[in-house]
Amino acid sequence: MKKKRSLYRNQMIMGYILILPALILFAIFFVYSLIQAVYYSTLEWDGIGVQTSVGLQNYLNLFQDKVFWGAFFNNWFYTFGLMIFGVLPGLLLAYMLSRPNIRGRTFFRSIYFFPRIISAVIYGAVWKWIYDPRVGLITKIIDLFGDDNSFAMLGNVKTAMFGITITGGWTYFGFCMVLFLAAFMGLDNALEESALLDGANRLQMFFHVTIPQIKPVLNTVLVYTVIDCFKVYDLVLVMTAGGPNDSTQIMTYYIYKQAFTMNQFGYGSAAAVLLGIFMVIFTIVYNRLVGEEV
Amino acid sequence: MGKAKSYTKKQMLGKALMYIVLILGAIYTLIPFATIIITSFRTTKDSVRGPFTWPHEWQIVENYISAWEMGHFDRYLLNSIFMMVITVIGTLFVATLAGYSFAKFRYPGKNVLYYTLLLSMMIPFQTIMLPLYFILRASKLLNTLTGVAILGIATGLGFAIMMMRSFFISLPDSLLEAARLDGCSELGVLLRIVMPNTFPAWASLIVFVAMASWNNLLAPMIYIFNEEKYPIPYALYAFQSAHTTSYELLSAGMMISILPIILIYILFQKNFQANLMAGAVKG
Q1: Which residues of chain B does A115 touch, with a Cβ-Cβ cutoff of 8 Å?
Q2: Which of A229, B32, B208, B230 fits a disulfide with A79 by CB distance 3.0 to 4.6 angstroms?
Q3: CB burial of residue B6 (10 Å; 0-12, 13-18, 19+)
């Protein structure tokens, strides 16, 4: 009895010791940083000089800042764009690859996943070439049809964000595909077969039998997509740096610009805190919704 | 009989269609990579015609040598490798211990601590990047690769711990109990029984962490000021700004910076994708 008790105490102490390094890092880099970030957001401060407390003024200014809301809107645009150009093709390709009579599964899977391991500095630059109005691939294709007007995807306020979104989808669909493929491969074929015997066509079967079965994975991917899309930074920096005329401004780049280009540390922090709050609320609300459904 | 035959024909058509879509998808994925590879082998004179023309003149090593020398890629590669190694080792160390603790030990407050640590996954880096600047400055780690590496360990920790914990949960308790009954100390159990079984989990964690560290652009942009300390993505970004239309040099530089991470991906990819898939199914 006594031995068992001391064994438990030993385990307890050992358990705490093992998580200590993680806790220390977390305390310094997250807890302390978050408190500091909230504190900075109440200041007027250029990062070097005098700190003047302005209360909630930064937040009030943010609510009237058109560029900030434009950035927020662009992040949503990018998110929905990636659902269409990333999640959807990922889902369809995964479904095709999961068919039992398809060969070369590993081959296709590895190729599709490839863009995900490369830095945005690389694929962003190549896609910039693709969109180039003078030597770009799109211009070349348009030329084939006899139209000599060069088309500047990234130079146009109306199409620049769309161009970034296409590139984002290109890096993302393979990643989604890998996740969906796992789900499809784990499915029991019996349900589909009985649906076919009941006279359902392929499309009906896909939407009413197959998709509902992979709903947990679909939910995970959708939440992950929103979180990932609100963290996007490198791609926008490399392709447009927020331009032309702030038409591709996104939250993360806006925060960076406020702090390190305009030296408005307080104002940038307020935007950063709002982004953090939004992400946490979004994740919690979504988990609630999904949790209730299951 | 006739009906069965037409059914197979329809199936064949469906299958052919699927292969066409799959191959088109692969081509779509590979076009940018093919562009980089081909362009990196063109002569300077030839590449003026643009990256989407078929080359008239080829050269194999010249651009790579120029990029290596003009772009100082030897130095930047070493910087990135240094940063990556510290980040990977640090993450493996911290996440393995914490994951093991959360999976196999009983103590008060365990779940609360675990979910608190996971919160760090939700906080975007941009939210805390300004305070981190002053933390690094105060600890004399500003403008050092070690500083950026430590930030990499901290910001990737939530995910790494989650992965290691779910791996250790799948490790049978009986294995540990048997060793404990044999009089093995807790440290002995960890070092002699647990660690040797951890390599598959490490393999995929290494790919995740190495990729994040290798491709990290934002943190070096903020916290590194001296050009000789730039890691690869930042150096490449600076190189791009300086040589906007030297497609052949840029491509060679890109190729040099892709190769190491591709090597890691190929070495560990089987485990990596399997783990990614398993994680998704578990939710």
Answers
A1: 29, 32
A2: A229
A3: exposed
